[in-house]
Specification:
The protein contains eight helices and 16 strands. The protein is an alpha+beta fold. The strands form three sheets. A six-stranded antiparallel β-sheet has the order 6-7-16-15-12-13, with helices on one face. Strands 2-1-5-4-3 form a five-stranded antiparallel β-sheet. A five-stranded antiparallel β-sheet has the order 8-9-10-11-14, covered by helices on one side.
Length: 429
């Protein structure tokens, strides 16, 4: 005992208990507390003393169960009391207190009812899980997978150029809006494809053979609808007008302007002997267009070949043609500066005679070849194109065209504009 004056111990009291008795008493009180629940029973056994609490019990097989635990460790089995009641016994020997064995007996009927109830709950949860899973799969399929597949099919149709395909996804969410955008794109692409077909029909599909001359042309558009236009017209007296033109820009507007130029040319196709009339008609067309909201322009030129074999150039702001000598391979530009079509309604066009010997070739071209740049940003320009035209020369005009396009591909880093060549070869005989 500690003194309240000097805080020193003045007395010492020692209490002694027998260890096994203390353990037994401790577990006995635990057993008494647990016995209040009729659905389960608690038993404690000490192997050293042979004591079991409660001592008076009505379960014949309990001692054997304790012995089984003592020899084999944790165990469980079904025991039946003298009154026929079934109990599920679960036993465990102590770890620190190895001589003590604790057994819990649970009412087997009550346990089976709870297990059955739990099984029903589990099956109910499984059923609800299946329903929810199927619902989610339906929602996922109807609102996610199906729209994605439909839009993927639309994109595939774009890749295959089947522009008549429509997704038609009647949904008011993001997928519906996106599908409508794809449908609108398909519709626009379909219109572009129709416009491309119409535009291609505006161009001559075959080469032109005249008395003493051969004309061939080829174009490569940067986009679906280009702005380069060429055409050949021949009147009844075998006078010919070879047109090379370049509408500023691309797309639908360029295609429509090409169609208008084609109309002006067809309305005056009998005036090949007087190419000034054709140039004036084209100029009037674009002068009238400039009065509207259309502000684009068109450059162009006509090489006129009379029935007697005379050649002349009429120019409206287009690139100077090149004359490539058939024997000397010299390249000579035909310079004739002029404004594009559409800048003066009363404008007069004059002819510039062009001298062509047998075997000579005139090359008309669009400015896309002059403005193409290589990987170092260097533009080809007029001098570079003249050198290219000289090196690509071939006695066969179609091979000559192939060589020009191949040389362009080797030079240009990428195509930034439409590329067109019109080739006029004077026969050597």
């Amino acid at each position: 005992m500690r003194s309240g004056i000097d805080n020193r111990f003045s007395h010492l009291i020692q209490l002694f208990w027998h260890e096994k008795d203390m353990h037994f008493e401790f577990f006995r009180r635990i057993a008494e507390t647990a016995a209040a629940d009729a659905s389960q029973r608690l038993f404690i056994s000490f192997s050293e003393t042979g004591n079991t609490w409660p001592r008076n019990h009505d379960i014949p097989g309990l001692s054997t169960f304790f012995e089984k635990i003592r020899q084999h460790g944790p165990s469980y089995e079904k025991l039946v009391s003298r009154d026929g009641k079934a109990w599920l016994a679960v036993g465990q020997a102590g770890i620190s207190l190895s001589s003590a064995i604790l057994a819990v007996l649970v009412d087997n009927d009550l346990l089976q009812r709870k297990v059955s109830h739990l099984k029903n709950r589990i099956w109910s949860l499984v059923g609800w899980s299946i329903i929810i899973t199927l619902s989610l799969l339906y929602i996922l399929s109807h609102y996610l997978i199906m729209p994605i597949k439909a839009m993927a099919a639309g994109v595939e149709m774009v890749r295959n150029k089947n522009y008549s395909y429509r997704i038609n996804l009647p949904m008011a969410n993001e997928f519906g809006r996106l599908s409508r955008s794809i449908d609108e794109s398909l519709e626009n692409l379909q219109e572009l494809e129709i416009a491309k077909t119409v535009q291609e029909s505006l161009l001559p599909q075959e080469s032109l053979n005249l008395a003493g001359f051969f004309v061939v042309a080829r174009t490569r558009s940067m986009t679906s609808l280009g702005g380069d236009y060429y055409d050949f017209v021949v009147d009844n007296d075998k006078n010919a007008a070879i047109l090379m033109a370049d509408v500023a820009g691309h797309g639908i507007q360029a295609a429509l302007l090409m169609a208008m130029a084609k109309s002006a040319l067809l309305l005056n196709d009998s005036a090949c002997a007087e190419p000034e009339i054709i140039m004036s008609a084209l100029n009037r067309t674009f002068c009238n267009l400039r009065k509207s909201s259309i502000t684009t322009m068109m450059t162009g030129q006509i090489i006129s070949i009379s029935c007697s074999g005379q050649v002349c150039l009429l120019n409206a702001g287009h690139c100077p043609p090149l004359v490539v000598g058939g024997t000397s391979r010299t390249v000579t530009p035909i310079s004739s500066e002029a404004l594009p079509f559409g800048f003066s309604l009363r404008r007069k066009f004059s002819r510039l005679p062009v001298s062509m010997a047998a075997g000579d070739t005139i090359i008309l071209y669009s400015d896309g070849i002059l403005e193409c740049a290589n990987r170092h940003g260097q533009m080809l320009g007029e001098e570079g194109f003249a050198e290219l035209a000289k090196n690509c020369y071939d006695a066969d005009c179609n091979r000559y065209l192939d060589n020009l396009f191949s040389a362009y591909d080797n030079w240009a880093a990428s195509q930034q504009d439409d590329i067109t060549f019109v080739m006029i070869r004077r026969h050597e005989n």
